[in-house]
Design brief:
The complex is a heterodimer of chains A (about 110) and B (about 110). Chain A is mostly beta strands. Chain A is about 0% helix and about 50% strand. Chain A contains no helices and eleven strands. In chain A, the strands form two sheets. In chain A, strands 2, 4, 5, 6, 9, 10 and 11 form a seven-stranded mixed β-sheet that branches. Chain A starts with a strand and ends with a strand. The relative contact order of chain A is 0.33. Chain B is mostly beta strands and about 110 residues long. Chain B has strands at about 5, 10-15, 20, 25, 30-40, 45-50, 60, 65-70, 75-80, 90-95, 100-105, 110-114. In chain B, the strands form three sheets. In chain B, strands 2, 5, 6, 10, 11 and 12 form a six-stranded mixed β-sheet that branches. A four-stranded antiparallel β-sheet of chain B has the order 3-9-8-7, with no helix packed on it. In chain B, strands 1-4 form a two-stranded antiparallel ribbon. Chain B is globular and about 45 Å long. The chains are: A mainly beta (about 110), B mainly beta (about 110). The interface of A and B includes residues 44 and 107 of A.
Chain lengths: ~110, ~110
């Protein structure tokens, strides 16, 4: 099992550019999440999904979009990058029912200049 | 809404000292999960323990122990005989039973000096 895989690991974007952060998991987990971690802070929930075809906003969704067309994949889209989106992004998944432990990807360090 | 407070921003100890990391949470939910995760300097998030709201039994795993007290909404984490490798940021987390989403505390940075 690879667990939760995020790509890319690092990215520099110019203001106004768009990009998609990829997240895939091979554990057949229903629940998937996107978090961002600003320097010296805890993680804040951006979006989450309880299953394929279902997504919902978290605490800080502005400037982001997600989709969940399959159980495995949960991409995060930034449409118009802004310096305030400079952060480390973590994708996570959880079975949700029988085992609530969340498995995290390695993170994507994004810088918007 | 849930809230997790880790009042200790940074703790510095000398190797072999015991250290307790505090976690206090706020919720109106009667059922929930609590977690501790470790984030070493390399940046990944490592699961340490899960506790559900029904189970107030304390747990010990090697040098780690956890004290869950529902009456005071606290879930404290103690490292006994700390080691340099314990240096990391430790997060306390709350999971609600509806969305199953995690609410993070702001983390406690632990520095263990040799």
């Amino acid at each position: 099992n690879a667990g939760v895989t995020q790509t890319p690991k690092f990215r520099i974007l110019k203001i106004g550019q768009s990009m998609t952060l990829q997240c895939t998991q091979d554990m057949n987990h229903n629940y998937m999440y996107w978090y961002r971690q600003d320097p010296g802070m805890g993680l804040k929930l951006i979006y989450y999904s309880v299953g394929a075809g279902i997504t919902d906003k978290g605490e800080v969704p502005n400037g982001y979009n997600v989709s969940r067309s399959t159980t495995e994949d949960f991409p995060l889209r930034l449409e118009l990058a802004a310096p305030s989106q400079t952060s480390v992004y973590f994708c996570a998944s959880s079975h949700g029912r029988t085992n609530t432990e969340a498995f995290f990807g390695q993170g994507t360090r994004l810088t918007v200049v | 809404a849930q809230k997790v407070t880790q009042a200790q921003t940074e703790i510095s100890v000398v190797e072999k000292e015991d250290v307790t990391l505090d976690c206090v949470y706020e919720t109106r939910d009667t059922t929930y999960y609590l977690f501790w995760y470790k984030q070493p300097p390399s940046g990944e998030l490592v699961f340490l323990i899960r506790r559900n709201s029904f189970d107030e039994q304390n747990e010990i795993s090697g040098r780690y122990s956890w004290n869950f007290q529902k009456s005071t909404s606290s879930f404290n984490f103690t490292i006994t005989a700390s080691q340099v490798v314990d240096s990391a940021v430790y997060f306390c987390l709350f999971m609600d039973m509806g969305r199953r989403a995690l609410t993070f505390g702001s983390g406690t940075r632990l520095q263990v000096q040799p």
